[in-house]
């Protein structure tokens, strides 16, 4: 029996289209025409010997064969990209001090840093998870080489804007949100100040004439998630790193006001960083942009600024 060898470019288009929820958007990301991506999908379907997609309302959904192939495609592409990175940087050495917001710690660190460590075992990474103000201050003081920060003020030097994520009200998934009648204060769960998202939430409530009260404050994101899951109130974050048991509340649900989108910056310590820093930045860029595209497709056009 002749063995089938799948086309990696076609697998990449397939996996990216599913991740972004649109093969047209995948074509734009891959710098290809929509017709070229469509041809790749047809080729992949011939190689698979079974339909990969089916109609679902106005869009498409994966068939059982498509779900099986997607799982393998992600593994094959990860190994391919890891091998390519390893060959490009066989002698890569050094030390990278990386800063990330808590929102991305669990969702980004294990996979991205695991891949980077396997490809570049001689590079030492010191990762710091922290609040936005702390990360920006450490970046300005030269204590970090690379940091992911929210755009909450003047754009720092050597910053690359990756995109935007919509802010949303978040409540527990297991029960109706604890939103009282309009004349009663809204129980709000928030970080201790200073906090950009807390300021944006309270400003939106004040503009809407909606009374509010602080029901719970915490210095950590884990504390916010726990209090929200317990039904003590609602909080404001993006969908990044949202744990199970919580859900974004629909726009206008229970009369909650609309919120803006918040920009995300990847900041380097130098205009031309050392090779290890540049490689790690490149590795982080793709999953971050995919997450931004997937979560921010319906983002409001308003750009958030510090209150």
From TrEMBL:
Q: Which UniProt keywords apply?
A: DNA-binding, Transcription, Transcription regulation
Q: Name one Pfam family in it.
A: LysR_substrate
Indicate yes or no for the key word DNA repair: no
Say yes or no: keyword Transcription present: yes
GO MF, one annotated term: DNA-binding transcription factor activity
InterPro entries given in the database record: LTTR (IPR050176), LysR_HTH_N (IPR000847), LysR_subst-bd (IPR005119), WH-like_DNA-bd_sf (IPR036388), WH_DNA-bd_sf (IPR036390)
Known PROSITE patterns for this protein? HTH_LYSR (PS50931)
Residues crossing the lipid bilayer are none
Q: Which residues form the HTH lysR-type domain?
A: 6-63
- The source's domain of life comes to Bacteria
UniProt family annotation = Belongs to the LysR transcriptional regulatory family.
Q: What is this protein called?
A: DNA-binding transcriptional LysR family regulator
Q: Which organism is it from?
A: Fulvimonas soli
């Amino acid at each position: 029996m002749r063995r089938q060898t799948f086309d990696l470019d076609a697998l990449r288009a397939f996996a990216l289209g599913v991740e972004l929820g649109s093969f047209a958007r995948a074509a734009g990301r891959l710098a290809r025409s929509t017709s070229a991506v469509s041809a790749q999908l047809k080729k992949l379907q011939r190689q698979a010997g079974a339909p990969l997609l089916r109609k679902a309302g106005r869009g498409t959904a994966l068939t059982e064969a498509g779900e099986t192939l997607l799982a393998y495609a992600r593994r094959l592409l990860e190994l391919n990209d890891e091998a390519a990175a390893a060959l490009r940087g066989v002698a890569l050495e050094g030390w990278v001090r990386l800063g990330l917001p808590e929102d991305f710690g669990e969702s980004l660190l294990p996979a991205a840093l695991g891949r980077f460590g396997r490809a570049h075992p001689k590079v030492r990474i010191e990762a710091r998870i922290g609040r936005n103000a702390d990360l920006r201050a450490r970046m300005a003081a030269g204590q970090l080489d690379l940091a992911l920060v929210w755009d909450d003020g003047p754009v720092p030097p050597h910053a690359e804007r990756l995109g935007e994520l919509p802010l949303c009200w978040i409540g527990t998934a297991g029960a109706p949100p604890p939103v009282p009648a309009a004349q009663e204060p809204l129980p709000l769960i928030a970080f201790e100040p200073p906090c950009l998202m807390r300021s944006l939430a309270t400003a939106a409530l004040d503009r809407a004439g909606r009374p509010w009260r602080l029901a719970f404050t915490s210095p950590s994101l884990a504390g916010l998630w726990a209090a929200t899951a317990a039904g003590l109130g609602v909080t404001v974050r993006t969908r990044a790193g949202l744990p199970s048991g919580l859900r974004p509340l629909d726009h206008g649900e229970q009369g909650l006001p609309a919120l803006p989108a918040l920009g995300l910056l990847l900041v380097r310590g130098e205009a031309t960083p050392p090779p290890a820093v540049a490689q790690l930045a490149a590795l982080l860029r793709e999953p971050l942009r995919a997450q931004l595209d997937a979560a921010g497709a319906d983002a409001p056009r308003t750009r958030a600024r510090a209150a």
